Amino acid sequence: MARYLPLARPWFGLVAAFALLGVAVQVVAVAVDSAPYSVFTGTGARVANVFAYFTILSNLLVGVTHVLLAVDPARDSLAMRVLLLDAVVGIAVTGIVYNLVLAQTVDPHGLHQVATVVCHMITPLLAVVGWLVFGPRGLVDREVVLVSAGYPLAWLAFTLVRGAVIDWYPYPFVDVVAHGYARIAVNCLVVAVLFVGLGFGALALDRRLPGLGAR
């Protein structure tokens, strides 16, 4: 572990800084520019709505877990294991889905563009590379993978129920009004399978890669 520690802690700190910076910039962007959120007329409502996005929640998870790792890379508990896997897989899904599916549907400007680049590109890359290089290793098992799946499923359930109430959805692939429940059910299944598949991929890699706590 010692040979990884000098680089691991500053890397975890760097990842946390970018993740939290991206969220902060996005909050400021929606506070000063209502154009992309015209359905929410008040500043407070627009800011609160930022946290309905899977991207923002995943960046927050990355920020919090990596602050904890920067302070104590040996930190270990079931909650930490689940949150860290949710953070790494969630931010990987964020990068994959945005860059392969959503990037062609949006045209951000100003602070929105800065937040988009940080939250969807820089943070996913740094977080995934950091996990591959440093880990921490030995924190992923079958139970952790299955429990971590509760995060995207809970987000999907919340998003669909809230969307039905307020008639607004954060992403086109969960917009029931535009696509109908059958299509959205398929889209949600794809996201869930991607998340769990990446979780089991992380389990396989965790057993083979070196890093902090490697056995």
UniProtKB/TrEMBL annotation:
What InterPro entries does its record include? Pr6Pr-like
Question: What keywords were assigned to this record?
Answer: Membrane, Transmembrane, Transmembrane helix
User: Where is the chain membrane-spanning?
Assistant: 50-71, 83-102, 114-134, 146-169, 181-205
Q: Which NCBIfam families match?
A: Pr6Pr (NF038065)
> What is the name attached to this protein's record?
Pr6Pr family membrane protein
- Top-level taxonomy: Bacteria, Bacillati, Actinomycetota, Actinomycetes, Pseudonocardiales
